From TrEMBL:
Job description of the protein: General (non sugar-specific) component of the phosphoenolpyruvate-dependent sugar phosphotransferase system (sugar PTS). This major carbohydrate active-transport system catalyzes the phosphorylation of incoming sugar substrates concomitantly with their translocation across the cell membrane. The phosphoryl group from phosphoenolpyruvate (PEP) is transferred to the phosphoryl carrier protein HPr by enzyme I. Phospho-HPr then transfers it to the PTS EIIA domain.
The UniProt record lists the keyword Flavoprotein: no
Annotated NCBIfam families: PTS_HPr_family (TIGR01003)
Pfam families: PTS-HPr
Keyword field contains Chaperone: no
Domain of life (superkingdom): Bacteria
HPr domain ranges (all copies): 18-107
Keywords: Sugar transport, Transport
Protein name: Phosphocarrier protein HPr
Database matches in CDD domains: PTS-HPr_like
Length: 114
């Protein structure tokens, strides 16, 4: 059965693998187009459901949706909670957290010079 409810609203049981991590965005511009694409592509590579909460607002976004991630206008200093449920949940959360910590593997921050 494919539960379409947001991750935070789904019942938890022993068979559900759930992983959660919190990470601060340190990229100078935040999740603009390129980092958002990189994040959602990585999220889509895992079979589990992935949710992202921004600054503890209680709203869980679909971490595999470029529209939802870009629409959140995530900036430097924002804190992301990344939650995964299902197969490979721990691996997914660890990989996404590491990606954010590595500034989305961008060589430069693309910030304007002062």
């Amino acid at each position: 059965m494919n539960d379409q409810r947001p991750i935070a609203d789904r019942p938890q049981d022993a068979a559900s693998a759930v992983a959660l991590a919190t990470v601060e965005v340190t990229h100078d511009i935040g999740l603009h187009a390129r980092p958002s694409v990189v994040f959602t592509r990585l999220a889509k590579s895992f079979p589990c459901a992935i949710g992202v909460e921004v600054n503890g607002d209680g709203v869980w976004l679909n971490g595999k949706s470029i529209v939802k991630i870009m629409g959140a206008r995530i900036r430097k200093g924002f804190v992301l909670s990344i939650r995964a449920e299902g197969a490979a949940a721990a691996e997914a959360v660890a990989a996404l957290r590491t990606l954010v910590e590595r500034n989305f593997d961008e060589e430069k921050s693309h910030a304007r010079s002062a």
